[in-house]
Give the backbone structure.
Amino acid sequence: MLHQIKGLHHVTSIASDAAENNAFFTQVLGQRRVKKTVNFDAPDVYHLYYGDEVGSPGSVMTYFPFHNAVRGRRGTGEVGETVYSVPKGSLPFWADRLGAAAEGLEAVNHFGEERLRFQTSDGEGFALAEIADDNRHGWTGNGIADDHAIRGFHGATMRLQDTGAMTELLTFMGYEKQDTIGNVSRFAVADGTGANTIDLEKLPSAKHASQGAGSVHHIAFAVENRAAQLEVRAALLDTGYQVTPVIDRDYFWAIYFRTPGGILFEVATNEPGFDRDEDIAHLGEALKLPKQHEDQRSLIESHLQPLA
């Protein structure tokens, strides 16, 4: 069993409009845009990162906004819900703030946690969960008080036709099963980033998801450094997983592999961080390009939608 994985690092999804995506995460959810860059493989498409003040591992939601992308079909083989942690007693504030900016607002109790579920305009599933013992500092720079501010992720829910193989994988990755209620089982990792829970929802008769706007592209797990990442990679290869070589993503190093249920997993390092090419006071303000695309800056900028 692995011990290097420390909860979630980031979640990356697909959106249909960059400006709308930017406005929702910064102005409605009050997150900080910590990086404005582009997709390594499609440099005419933004890669936008939102999180806490410094983009701490376990706080960062990232997007590829493909303009006018067709909405994905919800189903199995995907991350169905990304869950943020908020302070106790803050859900009434969030219900009022989300208002017409989100779809399908629903208050629920899930594994003893009071939650507010909602969807973005692209249909992507989120929830805010009141977590009493989360001591992380939320970002308040976009006008949300500390007693309401999002602390980072709490976890995510994965939808699968069968959860057996994923249970084995999560256990191998260092997660322990905590409880099962109905068709949902909860797993957690100790001493993580704060984004320490994964719920597996078993939906044996549901159709497989089709990726598009509102779909999670991949979910990333955190390791402290490159040495730990190489240990994880070797262990996954020994277990039979097809794992990519280590890829330099400028702000972290990444490896990827496809899980039995079809979800793309990434293992990302906590180093070097989002301040490697920008001062912390100005994170996310300037367009940062991967070095292989810098000579195309003028052309790339001409294709990108202006962002506030």
Summary: The chain has a mean pLDDT of 97. The CA atoms of residues 36 and 284 lie 5 Å apart. The longest helix spans residues 226-239.
